[in-house]
Fold this sequence. Notes:
Layout: E1 6-8, H1 9-19, H2 24-34, E2 41-43, H3 44-53, H4 55-60
Antiparallel strand pairs: 1-2
Helix pairs in contact: 1-2
Amino acid sequence: ANDDGAISDRELRVHMRTYTSYSDSAISAIFANLDANEDGEVSRDELREAFVKSAALRQALGMGPNFK
């Protein structure tokens, strides 16, 4: 994390490798789902929108089914 307010593919990958057993392809798919505008990073708005819309994503990242 570099405190720029966005999540890069690398930052997500490091976090997911540390705290989950997801494969690289699964992490890539999660990142692709989060990066709605395909600019190579996930903004706070993209993250919030993805979490609100996707219970599976919340479960994958350990945030539970009822994130608001």
